[in-house]
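Minimal example, chain plus zinc ion.
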Amino acid sequence: IEAIYLKDYKKPAFSIESVNLEFDLYEEFAIVTNIMKMNKVDGNEKTLELHSTDLELVELYINDLKLKESRYIISKESLSVLNVPSEFTLKVVNKIYPQNNTELEGLYKSGSIFCTQNEPEGFRSITPYLDRPDVMSVFTTTVIADKESYPVLLSNGNKVDTKDRVDKRRSVTWHDPHPKPSYLFALVAGDLGSITDEFTTASGSNVELNIYCDKGNESKCYHAMKSLKEAMLWDEQKYGREYDLDIYNIVAVDSFNMGAMENKGLNIFNSAYVLADEDSASDANFMGIQSVIAHEYFHNWTGNRITCRDWFQLTLKEGLTVFRDQCFSADLNSAEVQRIDDVKSLRERQFVEDASPTAHPIQPKSYISMNNFYTSTVYEKGAEVIRMIHTLLGEENYRKATDLYFKSFDGQAVTTDDFLWAMQEASGIDLSAFKTWYHQSGTPKLKVEESFSDGVYKLTLTQVIPNAVDSTKQNPYYYPLKMGLLDESGEEILAQTLVVSKEREEFIFQNLKSKPILSINRAFSAPIIVEQKSAEYAFLMKYDSDSFVKYESAQNFAVETIESMMRGQEINSSFVEAYGHLLDLDIDLSYKALLLELPSVSTLMQRQDEVDFEPIYEAKEKLAKHLAVTFEDKVMKLYVDNHFPNVSAIDSLNMGKRSLKNRALKILAPLETPAIGKLTQAQYNESLSMSDRVVALDILENTFSDFALEALGDFYSKYKDQTLVMNKYFSILSASHREGVLKRVIELQNDEVYDEKVPNLVRSLIGVFARNYKYFHAKDASGYKFVADKIIEIDKINPQMASGLAGAFKIYSRINTLNKELMRVELQRILNTKELSKNSFEIISKILK
Ligand code: HT7
Ligand code: ZN
């Protein structure tokens, strides 16, 4: 198994002017006819080498002349055509078996729907091609299938022809005028329901908008449609980007490896990011749909019009597009909550990855399977990097710079250096020192020291840079650091953005009356870990004007308190008092719910030198119980004040009320009194919202098991026909801390609803279990054994899904010696499996190194 290196990049030797594809779809197989107009770019190249994964070749022509077998070589991974002229038309006919495709890459079937997933390298399992993002071509696609079973036939671009044939088959032709790489090609065929709408662009073009889904689900598509129109308008207003085809189609399918895919004019979505109504979707689901719909739409400019030269540049489109979708969600909802949620997710996933043996720069240097690099580092840390550029340039310069980027590179496949060039060129700001962020891995730390005398406040900042995975030393970073100083009455004296650029540097602030209180890394302006001794957490929780630092201080104070308890100390009463003040704040309700949340187990675990979960649980549970007892009355009042009226509306006020009310219920649960049990049960039975139901069900499962069975039974019987809702059911049971979880998870695999071929279900049952620290890390190795068995089994069906599950073992290098040895045995067992996919091989071998 060989790695591919960025340093080996070579330009393609051939270009493809146009592609004409014809798909003849049948129940057992499909015939693909691919006619490419090709040109030699490198005159010396005699052989045309096309990517081709396990394809069955039927026939091959050059300029209408059928080629003899001596003119080409077909192997497992390529089709080489010998002695090609400098300009020619190549026609390839091949046969594929979408019905047997369980990897969900290329052309496959999700239930009865034919669909495709080609990013990054799926197209080569459809037809031989130069399957690399820097080969862009104009596609015309004809899809032919039985008219009754597959009345809807879709591909990229605009529909140019429909023919109903005498043999009961229908043929539809699509033409996409925008040159694109093969990874953006898409095809859908099915008997689908749909909703339709329209959007008029700023310059007056009318765009037809369609969302397709399984028949019967049409009523669940309206939130997605609303989100699409919001995204279209936002991109015009914020980036000056208009849509560029007559039609925008979205199709929801159940079997999908990730969230969604931005294929030109034909997005294909995991149905979890399209379908929602107030009875079946939680508030988080509604928000998730809004952001993923927007993300895929934004790719039309950042990804499709301007694409990546090679896959090492993935963050060029993903980091930028995530940043764009985060800003969109912040503009449409609560900006402070959005920022905190984004940081939370970065820390829970990306910081953990960055501290593991699979850490990599946002622009990796090598890969074995590109599928393994759709990571939170490339996506979320990549978005933080763009956010820092935005902060360094300021809103106005940033807009000038993105305008220049679009103008300079439209229709091209480019690199992150090209992007940085535009940022520099338009703003006049030198970003050469900033580039380090693209090439180094690991989360940088910043040590903060303060001194004060004679009215002079000195801030000494020292960067602590982790080594790369191969132990080489890495360099200090260049970044914006937003900060503020407060006087002792809580008034802000100063707010500014420092630029940190050296390993160690001092910042001096003069003419101060007394020692100020520091508020640092406001708005989380840089993705770093701040280390500050004796910070004034309680003070900042009370007075800081920065909503992020306020939250951060509450979290840090709680972390400090829990860690002192883990060392055997009593509960810090000042923390308890500060927490009490939070309960009284009259602020945005969702934000308040966040302030009241205790730090996650993952946050606490990331701070341990040798990870052990038991002491974390014990201390955290003790603190939670103490807070519940101390503030029972106040929290109950919060609950009651926000529980009524019983509505399911998804406006921001009602969503805020629900999130605060549910936080209150979670705070009260550790009391374990019959009264709280009854209250939770009543919430489950009476609430009209899925958010409320799921929170109640989770609390019943974990704390009031006497009531749980009835509620779980009720939930199952109500929703067993809605797979998306059943994901919630499986997740609650897999994440449970109740006795016997593993046994139940094993049994649930036999449930009629569960299907190992559907990634959403595997993620909610097995994936969630692998993140259930209590049972996954059980000291008898039962959790590790089970997950390892599943990885081995699923690797044969869907390698991408298997290597995703393997991520749970990333903590290996940092876990305590007992667990480490137990993990090692299982990891080795996976690695010894015959014909292990390169996806799983890459992840597991890195972890074990
Ligand atoms: N650009 C897409 C990345 C992707 C993907 C999507 C669905 C299934 C498999 C996939 N492999 C890679 C998703 C996005 O960032 O929008
Ligand atoms: Zn994306």
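The pocket of zinc ion (ligand 2) is lined by residues 295, 299, 318, 321 (CB under 6 Å). DSSP finds 26 helices and 31 strands in the chain.
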